[in-house]
Amino acid sequence: MSLLSVEGLTARYGSSQALFGVDLTIATGEVTALMGRNGMGKTTTVKAICRLIRSAGRLTLDGADLHCLPSHKVARMGVGLVPEGRRCFADLTVRENLIAAARPGEWTLKSVAQLFPALAERMAQRAASLSGGEQQMLAIGRALMTNPRLLILDEATEGLAPIVRQEIWAAVRRLKEETGVAILLIDKSVKELAQVSDKAVILARGKTVWSGPMTDLTPEISERYVGV
Ligand code: ATP
User: Fold this and answer.
1) Domains of the chain: which residue ranges?
2) What is the pairing mode between strands 55-61 and 64-65?
3) Which atom number of ligand 1 is nearest to the Cα of residue 45?
4) Which residue's alpha carbon is at the smallest distance from atom 19 of ligand 1?
C-alpha cells in the first residue's frame, strides 16, 4: 500500500483555483520528484498535503484521511516539511532549533550532526548567523528531528552555491540508501532529480500530466512539461 495517496486534489487561493486534479502516490523508501514549470502547482500541492491550505479530493497517509486533520497533527503523523525559503527560528541556536522540533525516534542531535558535520560545529550559533547552505541543512535537520515517515523538500537546493548543493544531494542520497524514509523532492535541477529519484510526477496548470518511473522520463516529456 502507498504511504501517501493523493487523488483528484483541488485547491484554491480565494477565488483563484490553483489545483485542478493532482494525483500522486508515494511508497515507503521511495524518492519521488514533483516536477513542472514555475507556477504549475508544486508548492500548492505540498501545502495541501501538509494541510497548510484547504483542499478537496483524496488525501491519505497510511490510509488515514488527512483532510480531517490540522497541520500539526499531519506533522505528528509523520510528514516532515522543509519549506521553500527554509524557515528556521532565527533567534534560536542551531541546537535549540533542532530540539524544538524533536520527537522520539532514530533521529537525534547526534545523527543530524553526523549527516551534516557543518551543523555539528555550529550547535551554539544563532540560526540567523548561518550561511544559506547551513540554514538549509538546519531546515532538513529540523524536519528529520520530527522522525518523519515522509520528508518533503520544497526547492531543495534553491539559491545555494554549487558545492553546497552537492552536499544537500549527497545527504538526500544517504537518506535514501540508509533509511526507509519516503521523500518528495521539488527542485529546479532536473539532472540531480533524475539521479536520485525513483519516480517523477509532473504537474502542468495544477494537474498531474505525467507520472512514472524516472527511467521512463524521456527528454521529449521533460522538454514539453518541465522546459529542459
Ligand atoms: P514555483 O516553481 O514558481 O514555486 P509552483 O509549481 O510551486 O511554482 P505554486 O506556487 O503552487 O506553483 O503556484 C500555483 C498557482 O497558484 C500559480 O498560479 C500561483 O500564482 C498561484 N499562487 C500561489 N500562491 C498563491 C497565493 N498565496 N495567493 C494566490 N495565488 C497563489
Assistant:
1) 4-225
2) antiparallel
3) 11
4) 39
Output the residue whose Cα is nearest ligand 1's atom 27. Answer: 13
* Predicted confidence band of residue 16 (pLDDT cuts 50, 70, 90): very high
Tell me which residues have their CB closer than 6 angstroms to ligand 1.
13, 16, 18, 36, 38-44
* pLDDT, tens digit (0-9, with 9 covering 90-100), for 98-148: 999 999 999 999 999 999 999 999 999 999 999 999 999 999 999 999 999
The cell for 103 is 520527537
Report in angstroms the alpha-carbon separations of 22 from 31, 78, 143, 208: 18, 21, 24, 5
CATH architecture for the domain at 4-225: 3-Layer(aba) Sandwich (3.40)
Half-sphere exposure of 48 (CA within 13 A, CB side): 32
To the question of pTM greater than 0.90 for the whole model, the response is yes
The pLDDT confidence band at residue 228, using thresholds 50, 70 and 90, is: low
Q: How many helices (H) and strands (E) does the chain have?
A: 9, 10
